Amino acid sequence: MCPKSEDVWLEAAQLQPGDTAKAVVGQAVQCLPQSVRIYIRAAELETDICAMKRVLRKALEHVPNLVHLWKAAVQLEEPEDARIMLSRAVECCPTSAELWLVLRRLET
């Protein structure tokens, strides 16, 4: 296997059933900790909302400047936690008008 290829890892996970796919994606995260596509796939494989949140938070530790990741993570949160998370999001992505607008809406 080519350990630095997102596509190879994602295809390998696609070919596996549930828990095995999760294990493949877990290995992929170890090899490619900056891969947003792999983190998104890891979150999609989770059936538990808490596990999904955990995956996306781990992704944000490695890639904190991507609006797409922040939006995915915020959507899973309750309003108060979403507000806290968005405050951090606008620190990491200060030029994102979209994140600022969502934060503003939650604060009013």
From TrEMBL:
One of its GO terms (cellular component) is catalytic step 2 spliceosome. Transmembrane segments: none annotated. One of its GO terms (biological process) is spliceosomal tri-snRNP complex assembly. SUPFAM superfamilies: TPR-like. Keywords: Repeat. This is Pre-mRNA-processing factor 6. It comes from Chloebia gouldiae.
